[in-house]
Amino acid sequence: MSRARPDAGFALPFAVFLISVLTLLLTAAFTKVDGDRRLAYSSGDGVTVLAIAKSGLQGYLSTQVTRPPDGDSLRINVTGGYADVVAHVVRQPADPLANWLFIVRSTGHVIEPPLGADPQAVRTIAQYAQWQTGRMDIRGAFTAANGLKKRTGGTIDVRGADQSTCGAPTVPGMRTPANWQANIAGVDPPALSSGTGMEVALETNIDFPALIGGGFTPDYTLAGPAARMDGTYSSQLITGNATLGGGLVISGTGLLIVAGDLTIQSTPMTPTTTWYGVILVGGKINFNASTSRIYGMAVSGLNKQLPEGAEPPENFGGTNVTIWHDACRIQQTLSRLTGFAPIANAWVDNWATY
Questions:
Q1: Lower CB count within 10 Å: N or C terminus of the chain?
Q2: Cα–Cα nearest to 178, from 147, 205, 149, 204
Q3: Peptide bond into 190 cis (omega under 30)
Q4: pLDDT digits (tens, 9 = 90+) for 62-103
Q5: Are residues 106 and 156 in the same domain?
Q6: Which distant-in-sequence residues (6+ apart) come within 8 Å of 322 by Cβ?
Q7: Domain range for 77
Q8: Can you tell me the distance from the alpha carbon of 276 to that of 351, in angstroms, rounded to the nearest whole number?
Q9: Does one domain contain both 156 and 277?
């Protein structure tokens, strides 16, 4: 009679154990790969949903042509999903034409058609923005709140009648404080001179301290000294003194805001410097070009709105100066200013957590 071997039946349980271990290892490997794949998809969706939210926000801000009501909402479809945008009024000034402050919230949704209609990722961002209204009172083709002194020489052609086809009412050729060269040949209608420099500056209804102090968002903020000379009807703010012309480019368009003094200059090769639109200057304008032309309107001495604003008067003339009231150029300039202007450093990408 034979004896049973001690290791009899060992191979089968060991094989089963080995297969189980290999199965668990393979399962863990597949699970890790699937987790990595899901993480990769999730990371990709996270980037995509942020881009969708931003696209919706920018699309809303750039397409509004009239000031929206409080709680205005819009769904914007973009590639890969859609964004739900809602605008709420944060601050409503007493003056209906003043800038309103809004918080505009955009919630992006990622849609992957193979996975169904439910969003695969959602993210909310928000941007503070102010609604700017392009409006300006025209007191004269050239308003010099800092006064005016006539230089000898040169020719002057200042016209208060609208020289465009827009049909705006006629305004004085010049508007100056009292006793500042009211009768200057070439100014038609004659200059209107009355009040103090501060009164003339305030009469424009241009809040110049707010314009240069952050209450207005221009297309370009320049430290100077040269203003941009292009044809885009952009708005630009120069924080110090500025120069216009004197190079190969001899004309510019849009809204030019200068906190200090503006010098219009030229060269023998480019003797004429022209601006189409609106020029607002805190100090004075130095008409130093051989021929200076402004088609639209110009205002100087706006620093007179400040109690310490002792701006020197204009040395007007000496060269050829043309300033025509052109309502169409003014409208082209101001139409670019109506709409939402995002406030710098006032954007958040985790609005949903508040």
A1: N
A2: 147
A3: no
A4: 888 888 999 999 999 988 899 999 999 999 888 766 788 999
A5: no
A6: 157, 158, 291, 292, 293, 294
A7: 39-133+340-353
A8: 42
A9: yes
